[in-house]
Amino acid sequence: MDKEKRYVAKRKIKAFLYGIPYLLCRIFPINKNKIVLWTFEGTGGYGCSPRYIAEELLKQKKEGKNSFELYWIVKDISKEFPKEIHKIKDTTWNRAFHMTTARFWIGNTRTFYGTRKRKSTTYIQTWHGSLSLKPIGKYRGNLFSKMAYLVSKADSDLIDHAISGSSYCTDMWRDGLIYDGVINQLGSPRCDVFVNNVAEKRMELRHEYNIPEEAKIIIYAPTFRGGSQGTKRAINENPITIDFDRVLEAFEKRFGGEWYMFLRLHPQLSVYCEGMSVKNKNSRLIDVTQRPDMNEIMAATDAIITDYSTCIFEGFLNGQMGFIYADDLEDYVKDRGSLMLELDEIPFSTASDNDALVSNILAFDEKEYAEKLKCFIEKNGIINDGHATERTVKLIEENYG
């Protein structure tokens, strides 16, 4: 038996044992008003689409429209949540009990391998990605390991409804999520903030971080590296090579005014970020990695720089200027697989080093960019009307009972 087969066999045994508490907890009845939520396998906080769904559910509950009780599974119990939400420390038995007795599950990442679901529990998967350069699932080709396939398929077999924010994602989820169930093209709840709360979030974050109200903000958000490789769960902590000072100077030269930069690492890297080389003496560089919700950050900012992350394909819904800075493209493709989209078919300029990035900023053409965005949104059927959350809550109500 080769190394990968031994690893897969070991994981299958572990999954079987992991599922036993879920079976034992079936002695307890399902609470028809109970909803369990999570983000980023429990490492995330109050963010992404589950947050906006929770907010709408709580709002409607205050109006007497529902009686739902919300339970949020989180590894770090000190993370802040609204007082109306029950925080659940992420342990195997806590997960098993609360998920087994819940009427609904709402998550933005997969459940753990071995998770068991009752037939009368409805699992709504909102997924944390959308359009992206980063390949997922079968789009990774030969780099999609057998173990990754098994984990993906096991979770997707539990899903009752997958939420899509575009016609592109509706088509892509089949092979991307290894999913052949119901896909509801409702829009992404997390993107409603770009329609409904931009002015509020711009002021809120500027006051919180002591940034002048008239100042502009760039967000630098590199994507997550690693994942379920053939025989291990890998986290790659790549060094950050972007020249923050030069980038800030370029934005000020091209667009005028005072600019600040937010640094936002992927939530699954947040627990590692203290050991990474991200320190900079520039007082206008602010680390917002520990902030739980990426979309409220994007709603407050004016430009985004990333490598392969889905966030740039959502930030532009807020009119954000977008720039690709990918200094490791060859290595990334070798590790993850071919990009989901060709670089010449996206509306963003691309750079592989700081010189090219600065040049792209200085040469930015607002009119050309706006035209490219319009065509890209229409081509990919992106929904952005500010009502995705309401439609998702209506889906919950339709499945309630």
Give the second-level CATH assignment, the architecture of the largest domain. 3-Layer(aba) Sandwich
Major sheet attributes: 7 strands, parallel
Using the coordinates shown, work out and report the CATH topology of the largest domain: Rossmann fold
Low-confidence stretches: 271-278
CATH superfamily of the largest domain: CDP-glycerol glycerophosphotransferase, N-terminal domain
Give the helix level as a range of percent: 25-40%
Q: According to CATH, what is the class of the largest domain?
A: Alpha Beta
Q: What is the number of helices? A: 14
What are its keywords?
single chain; 401 residues; alpha/beta; Rossmann fold; 2 domains; seven-stranded parallel beta sheet; six-stranded parallel beta sheet; 37% helix
Structure in words:
- The protein is α/β, with parallel strands linked by helices and 401 residues long.
- It has two domains: 202 residues, CDP-glycerol glycerophosphotransferase, N-terminal domain (Rossmann fold, 3-Layer(aba) Sandwich), CATH 3.40.50.11820; 183 residues, 3-Layer(aba) Sandwich (Rossmann fold), CATH 3.40.50.12580.
- The chain contains 14 helices and 15 strands.
- The strands form three sheets. A seven-stranded parallel sheet has the order 3-2-1-4-5-6-7.
- The protein is globular, with a radius of gyration of 21 Å.
- About 2% of the residues have low confidence.
